[in-house]
Amino acid sequence: MNLHANAKLGLAGRRELVLAIESGASIRAAAAAFGVSPATAHRWWHRWLEARSLADRSWRPHRQPRRLSALEEAPILHARRETNLGPGRLAGIVGRARSTIWKVLWRHGLSRRARGQRQSYRRYEWSRPGALLHMDVKKLGRFRVPGHRATGSRIDHDRSRGVGYDHLHCVIDDHTRIAYVELHPREDAATNTATLERALRFFADLGLDPPEAVMTDNALVYRRSRRFHELLANAGITHIRTPIYTPRWNGKVERFNPHPPRRMGLQPHLAQLERARPQPAKLHPLLQPQATPQLTRRPAPNQPRSQPMWAVQLAAPRRRRLRCRHQTCRLCRGVV
Fold this sequence. Notes:
The protein has 12 helices and 5 strands.
């Protein structure tokens, strides 16, 4: 039940008012006791006597002589279902006022446009091991003492404030799911470039051919790092950036970063590395088995080898957007 902001009587208050009048109190005395006007008490008392109901009535008038009949509403509803257009454009089709069309659509629950069918995404996998590498960074908060989720107590919840963060740099092969992980205190461009260099040597030691592309998100450390782009150019590797708000493109890293099954966090099973000489982190067997069984796996016959957009990115280099005179233009300051 929707009540306006100044309503003094709810459904329970109306019931108590009616019971007070039934017990022998006058309408004026009951109204003074409940802080309402005698007219309000009179209205709820007689409405209880007539319909035995204390709920609010509809504000709709009893007569609507200018309301469209069902036969006249049918063309509007049919045009809405066929074209999915709004009232403004339907007005020129059915020859009615847009306000009338909106009322008809709202009355039949069609005022909001039906959502389009969700785009289906097929699982992708490059056919050759080591052809595509996914790279991303996971930010992990440090703590001096375990938090309330582990201990169940919030007494020392401030003791870990200001401790800092650790950054988990992950490089995962698209085909075999082999992960190369390093733990660093920062996520700057130099750290990302050095991590990728060691990851390339790691995958080369496994006998894999040089990668064709490296996929990252749109972070500044990947977009504006000269050392990172020089490393990719010298190795003949194409840089693929995911579209904004589409983490599923880099999904293999996104699903590796969150906590694995059994609520086993990554940090307790990562070797604490020396800050001066970063080394690959040792993962728990549940996260990365030593003998990876996916090395000989091949994609299904009907499984796509790559996305259509990637084929365009591999065929032609990226073009720089021409800058305009507006120095504050947000579109012109970026590079596509």
